[in-house]
Design goal:
Layout lengths: L1 E5 L9 E2 L24 H5 L20 H4 L16 E3 L2 E2 L4 E6 L4 E6 L3 E5 L2 E2 L6 E5 L5 E8 L5 E8 L1 E2 L5 E2 L2 E2 L10 E5 L7 E3 L2 E2 L14 E3 L3 H16 L9 E4 L4 H6 L13 E5 L20 H18 L5 E5 L8 E5 L5 E3 L5
Parallel strand pairs: 1-9, 5-11, 21-23
Antiparallel strand pairs: 2-7, 3-4, 3-6, 6-9, 7-8, 7-10, 10-11, 12-15, 13-14, 15-18, 16-17, 19-20, 20-22, 21-22
Helix pairs in contact: 3-5
């Protein structure tokens, strides 16, 4: 039996659901830094955003993920317990207790599991039962909270973003997108001011990745990918496990960039930031001063710390068999300190590390 649910604003959805099994171009060149926001004080940081034509100041997506990759263990406190039952969204297992999913308006989203689970969407539970549940996304862009509780009591929280279709537009609701050089995304996540703290993974919120342009303008539009977030979560978890940091999140200096903004800062023409699968990051716990911590322990914050993090991520990604992507090391300049670029483009790319 298959249950199909078409969302309407007036719809009331209540209680226990039986869900059983069944449930761009990636080429790139070295990136140049932009800036977005850190998880801490996201709302406050938004007010300090710079115009894209002004040099960046330091400040802190799902797309596809292979089912096999999703099963790889990542050492992380928010990871699922061994007893947790597998829950899939459109056939892909959820890798963490907290995750996200992207859907186009009117698209069918399927939830499957290996045992009964309770499913809630926007605080209201679905009271139907079947081998799987299909939810039809509403016709308007927006964010929806999905909660799934399995038979072991494990709770998964899913931020489900219904995307705003681009349809060739370069300006959407007054927000400048610009022209993609190739592989234009079908749509972008639409964010209002109150959406910045919505989680997209255990340690990151969507507000950390917004583009640094048009301060005060709402809505804003952004994109993130699962491959990028899984790589960031792996780095954060391993740094903490090795006592190199005790950060709750990584400082995201630059996340998503619109093509408009990417052109304005003269970044790489095919920058992965435009596709939501790149972030310029570092841990910032000591001093919480928007500068990378002293990772190599030499008492200074220099390029050597960025290269330490580069090497650390390189070894980690190989050991964890995570999705392929890029790693780049960057030195400090008059605007920002050293940092590392990490992306989930799907192919290997390395730059910026002496000898890389």
């Amino acid at each position: 039996m298959k249950i199909s649910l078409r969302y309407t604003p007036a719809m009331t959805l209540v209680a226990s659901v039986l869900i059983t099994t069944a449930c761009g171009d990636r080429s790139g060149t070295p990136e140049q830094p932009g800036a977005t926001l850190s998880r801490a004080s996201t709302a406050q940081a938004v007010a300090e955003q710079a115009d894209p034509m002004v040099p960046d100041r330091v400040a802190p997506a799902s797309a596809t993920m292979d089912s096999d990759d999703a099963d790889d263990a990542i050492r992380s406190a928010p990871a699922l317990s061994e007893a947790a039952e597998t829950i899939r969204v459109n056939g892909t297992p959820l890798p963490f207790r907290t995750w996200h999913h992207l859907a186009m308006p009117g698209e069918t989203v399927t939830f499957d599991a290996d045992a009964p689970v309770r499913l809630e969407i926007d605080g209201e539970a679905i009271d139907e039962a079947g081998e799987r549940v299909e939810w039809t996304a509403p016709g308007e862009a927006g964010a929806h909270e999905v909660r799934l509780v399995d038979g072991t009591g494990e709770v998964r929280v899913l931020s489900l973003f219904v995307l705003e279709p681009l349809n060739g537009r370069e300006i959407v609701e007054g927000y400048r997108i610009g022209e993609y050089p190739q592989n234009t995304p079908e749509g972008l996540i639409r964010l209002n001011e109150g959406d910045l703290d919505l989680p997209v993974s255990p340690s990151f919120t969507i507000g950390q990745f917004i583009c640094k342009q048009q301060p005060g303008h709402w809505p804003k539009f952004v994109l993130v990918t699962g491959n990028m977030l899984r790589r960031l979560e792996a780095v954060l978890a391993e740094l903490n496990a090795d006592d190199l940091s005790d950060a709750d999140s990584l400082f995201v200096m630059s996340g998503f960039r619109t093509p408009y903004y990417n052109t304005a800062i003269r970044s790489a023409r095919l920058s992965r930031h435009m596709y939501g699968d790149a972030a310029d990051i570092y841990p910032d716990v000591v001093g919480n001063d928007s500068v990378m911590d002293d990772l190599n322990g030499d008492g200074r914050i220099t390029r050597a710390d960025a290269e330490f993090l580069y090497d650390y991520a390189e070894d980690l990604f190989a050991a964890k068999n995570l999705p392929e992507g890029g790693i780049g090391a960057y030195d400090a300049n008059a605007i920002h300190g050293p940092f590392v670029h990490i992306d989930g483009r799907g192919t290997r790319a390395r730059w910026g590390r002496f000898g890389s």
